[in-house]
Amino acid sequence: MGRKSHGSDFSGGQSACLVALITLFLIGAVVGSFFAANLGPGGQGLVAGFFGSAAGRGIWPLLQMAALESALLLFVFASAFFPLGLAVAPLVMGIKGFVLSLLVSAFVKTLGARGYAAALALIVPGGFTSVACMVLVGLQAMTLAARRVGRAGRGRMPTDWAYFFTGGIAWALIGLATALSCYITPLMGRAAGL
């Protein structure tokens, strides 16, 4: 009766991890929005032009975004195996929030009302899928990193195969979102007049 169950500790720890992930994502989004607001016309045009011309240049910009999202997901996934992993996943979420907010804000500031359509066409399918995947993997990575810190000096941690399975599913979802973006983006880009 006096001992807490392992399940309640685990749940409370995951809640704190989830709050950290979402908080850093939102802070990154706010900073990205302010950064985009202070970009000069050349910087806005560069950001919006690079992604806005994806419909005309084919799928190369989309594949570059998918590579960036996969690399960020790899950092989050690998952070579970190091004690500093508790800080890596929230920092990566902050970077993701910054990039998404910067791109959406640059689109809107450069293209006006059409910028919303451009952001919807070019960013949302892959961007929000990768955010969901990063939250899922980041939550588990932080939990495993916390366990690693708690076990310091007490031997090797057993392999958590479910974590590898979750990571594989997350990469598959990012790949699927990229494939959908490569199909949908040219259609939506033409509809938005890009």
Explain what this protein looks like in three dimensions:
The chain is built from 8 helices and no strands. The protein is globular. Helix 2 packs across helix 5 (85-111), helix 4 packs parallel to helix 7 and helix 6 packs antiparallel against helix 8. It has 194 residues and is an all-alpha fold. The protein has one domain. The protein has helices spanning 6-37, 41-52, 54-57, 60-78, 85-111, 114-122, 124-150, 161-191. Helix content is 83%, strand content 0%.
Write a concise synopsis of the structure shown.
The protein is globular, with a radius of gyration of 19 Å. Helices cover 83% and strands 0% of the residues. The protein is built from 8 helices and no strands.
